[in-house]
Amino acid sequence: MTTTTRTDARWAAVRAGLSRGWLETKYSLREPGDLVWNLAFPIIYLVVLLFMQGSTVPGTDFALGAMVLPSLVGMSIGFGGLTGPASTIAVDREDGTLLRAKATPNGMIGYLVGKILMFALTTAVSLVALIIPAFAVAGDLRLDVRTFVLLVLIFLFGMLATVPISVALGSLLKRASQTGLLFLGSMLLIVPSGIFYPITALPEWLQWVGQVFPYYWLGLGARSAMLPESMASVEIGESWRTAEMFAVLGVWAVLGMVLAPIVLRRMARRESGSTVAAARERYMSQGY
Question: pTM of the predicted model, to two decimals?
């Protein structure tokens, strides 16, 4: 097979993945359970922001809700990309979806592209449900062209940095019930991420831990887009570190895009019709 033919085959897989991702998104948004999940956290965050009305950041006259909202936006991007895809991998393994993808040329590439698009779109729905009403609740936020462009870029980088990693991690799990471990791990990573309080208030070793993972950088990026420049004084180096933020997210994106297809292919090689049937029987016996 020539280089041109291989390239054409990969692009065909990408197009198929985009089509699959769009169809899965439409199905997800029509599913009551998925819709409730996508809207539950934005509603919870809005209630929290409502309780913050009238409160200010200690030592300033800056609204506390305005300080917290950008961090919630960054956390929502990371949470949407890291927790959802892993659970679908286990289900797709048990119902034979991955086995069919393995049998398709460049099927794993198309499968990964489809997951990125699907979770980007569903996460975007959650963000819109959060941001639009939250602007009315949390004042003092920056709202201009720079804010919009930067938030879009952070969202795109965030999805590329988190969804492939989640797919790779989900491929290592044997059962859908084990995805709760990833949910717990994701929640633990939020602790040193500076989402709910300035990272500079943490011990230095925890600051370094937080800076390794996407949550911190997504929160920092959202704050840089939505908060005035003066609020950078509570960040590390008293700077938004925008270049470093995109660099770290870019590294995670490259790592995920390289690892996810490899792990998916290795996992799919261990699957067969009989193992899928056994997994499906076990799945049904559990009352699902």
Answer: 0.87
